[in-house]
Amino acid sequence: MVKVRVWDLPTRLFHWLLVAAVVGLVVTGNVGGNWINWHMRLGYLVFSLVLFRLVWGVLGGQWSRFSAFVPSPRRLWAYLRGTGDGHSVGHNPLGALSVLALLAVLSAQVASGLMTDDEIAFTGPLVGLVSSETVSLASWYHSEVGKLVLLALIALHVSAIVFYGVVKKQKLVRAMVTGDQEAPAPLPVESHDNLATRLLALGVWCCCAGVVYAVVSVGSPG
After folding, report:
1. In Å, how far from its chain's centre is CA 164?
2. 104-114: b (≥16 Cβ within 10 Å) or e
3. Per-residue model confidence (pLDDT) at position 204
4. Which of 28, 75, 135, 185 could in theory staple to 71 by disulfide, Cβ–Cβ 3.0 to 4.6 A?
5. Of 17, 47, 10, residue with least CA distance to 212
6. pLDDT digits (tens, 9 = 90+) for 187-214
7. CATH code at 190?
8. What Å distances lie between residue 123 and 30, 34, 113, CA to CA?
9. Which of 44, 60, 46 is nearest to 17 (CA)?
10. Is 84 exposed, middle or buried (CB count within 10 Å of its CB: 0-12, 13-18, 19+)?
11. Rounded to whole angstroms, how far apart are CA atoms 28 and 156?
């Protein structure tokens, strides 16, 4: 077994920033009060991170691309039957589905948050652009459905990491910190993780942040 660079620095930063932001969202959302302003800011950060990951899924390092880890039905079935890859780099098929599910749920949570009105301390920036029925539906989904689905997916994700660490001895957390993962020879293709890649990622994230600013500004008065 030899080490191979799997996760480029932009992917690792995305992962840990998203973890910190989601934890902050859960805390500020439950505390409420003046903390709701930080809840809103963290929501905008998650918005930019999700947009970044969608773009980076096309432009990023080899194993960060959707084309490299989204499983075909045949590969997923083989993995579930235990006849697939015994040890592979990047996301395994179930891990890939977990990533896609988290991105989908986070996208829905961000979209509903932009149209949420709790009638107390928070009004989403797009509330004035949609009907009252849409605001009511978005508010209900954001606080009653999406939050619970997201927490369930996070719990499942963490449980899977613990399982793979304890039972299969795969150090997934360390790989997401260092970027390197053990793989059998012959070496798989490594992810590019150089200065040019990192500057490209910074440019992509700045563009995504600009999109978030534009979306939020659409519903802002004046």
Report:
1. 20
2. ebbebbbbbbb
3. 98
4. 75
5. 47
6. 667 888 999 999 999 999 999 999 999 9
7. 1.20.950.20
8. 16, 13, 9
9. 46
10. middle
11. 22
Domain housing 125: 2-218
Q: What is the pTM of this model?
A: 0.91
The mean pLDDT of 51-70, rounded to a whole number, is: 93
Selection from 71-85, 86-100, 131-145, 155-169 with the highest mean pLDDT: 131-145
Residue 170's pLDDT is 79
Q: Which of 100, 213, 106, 203 is nearest to 150 (CA)?
A: 106
Contact present, 112 and 146 (Cβ < 8 Å): yes
- Distance (Å, whole) CA 61 – CA 189: 10
Measure the CA angle with vertex 52, ends 46 and 53; round to 5°: 90
Q: Which amino acid is at 188?
A: P
Q: Encode 4-20: b = buried (16+ Cβ within 10 Å), e = exposed.
A: bbbbbbbbbbbbebbee
Residue 191 to residue 210: CA distance in whole angstroms:
27
Burial of 42 (0-12, 13-18, 19+ CB in 10 A): buried
Q: How many domains does the chain have?
A: 1
Rounded Cα–Cα distance for residues 135 and 137 (Å): 5
Residue pointed to by tokens 């920033």:
17
Distances (CA, A) of 91 to 66, 137, 168, 208: 10, 35, 14, 25
pLDDT per residue as tens digits for the range 121-169: 788 999 999 999 999 999 999 999 999 999 999 999 999 889 888 887 8
